[in-house]
Amino acid sequence: ELKVEQNPLFLSMQEGKNYTIYCNYSTTSDRLYWYRQDPGKSLESLFVLLSNGAVKQEGRLMASLDTKARLSTLHITAAVHDLSATYFCAVNYQLIWGAGTKLIIKP
Amino acid sequence: NAGVTQTPKFQVLKTGQSMTLQCAQDMNHEYMSWYRQDPGMGLRLIHYSVGAGITDQGEVPNGYNVSRSTTEDFPLRLLSAAPSQTSVYFCASRHDEGSGANVLTFGAGSRLTVL
């Protein structure tokens, strides 16, 4: 059974700092997704990673995938308050989801 | 282009009542799905469909029923509501491109409370 674990589940940080969210999964997968959810809102796609070593960047967010380690990271550079949200990773064609990382960025 | 439209946004039911959550998409997506989101548990797949007339169960199908008579619509029926079905429900759709990116587009969500 494919399991997806995110850590940390909760992160409070100051603006301007860097941090990384981790997504581990238990069996092989050919794809990994990152989504963002603002409080009370729907989910929005951030990145799709389709191969080992894939790296995608958008603004202050950068996602990478290591299929051999079954690990993806979402790195936040010089965090700003607007990035406060819950971030989910999902794995595989049928999308098995992690529990989400609630990120709070304090001004 | 409306994307994925869910109705209602909020609903309160009594135990034992039945209801249907509506989902419609205008992107000609083959794949449609229903998820429930509970605190601390991420999203769990209830049912999905890869095309009109084809549906299948996801991770947590018990107590729910679906049908797909058209490409656009994928309603979710609660047969006899239970408090354990209190949750936020999301409908999502995507193209079914095999090796493609297959990014899901989500509806706005339906918050259901069962008393």
Describe the structure.
The complex is a heterodimer of chains A (107) and B (115). With 107 residues, chain A is an all-beta fold. Chain A is globular, with a radius of gyration of 13 Å. In chain A, strands 2, 4, 5, 9, 10 and 11 form a six-stranded mixed sheet that branches. A five-stranded antiparallel sheet of chain A has the order 1-3-8-7-6, with no helix packed on it. The model of chain A has no long low-confidence stretch (mean pLDDT 94). Chain A has strands spanning 4-7, 10-14, 19-25, 32-37, 43-49, 55-58, 61-66, 71-76, 85-91, 96-97, 101-106. Chain B is mostly beta strands and 115 residues long. Chain B has no helices and eleven strands. Chain B has strands at 4-7, 10-13, 19-25, 31-37, 43-51, 54-57, 64-66, 76-78, 87-94, 105-106, 110-114. Classes of the chains: A mainly beta (107), B mainly beta (115). At the A-B interface, strand 5 of A face strand 5 and strand 10 of B.
Question: What is the fold's blueprint, element by element?
Answer:
The complex is a heterodimer of chains A (107) and B (115).
Chain A: E1 4-7, E2 10-14, E3 19-25, E4 32-37, E5 43-49, E6 55-58, E7 61-66, E8 71-76, E9 85-91, E10 96-97, E11 101-106
Parallel strand pairs in A: 2-11
Antiparallel strand pairs in A: 1-3, 3-8, 4-5, 4-9, 6-7, 7-8, 9-10, 9-11
Chain B: E1 4-7, E2 10-13, E3 19-25, E4 31-37, E5 43-51, E6 54-57, E7 64-66, E8 76-78, E9 87-94, E10 105-106, E11 110-114
Radius of gyration of chain A: 13 Å
Order of helices and strands of chain A: EEEEEEEEEEE
Which structural class best describes the helix and strand composition of chain B? mainly beta
Count of β-strands of chain A: 11
Per DSSP E runs of 2 or more residues, the count of β-strands of chain B stands at 11
Q: Overall mean pLDDT score of chain A? A: 94
Q: Spell out the helices and strands of chain B N to C.
A: EEEEEEEEEEE
User: Which chain pair has the greatest contact?
Assistant: A-B, 21 and 20 residues
What's the helical proportion of residues of chain B?
under 10%
Assembly state of the chains shown: heterodimer
**Number of continuous helical runs of chain B:** 0
CA-to-CA gap between the ends of chain A? Answer: 41 Å
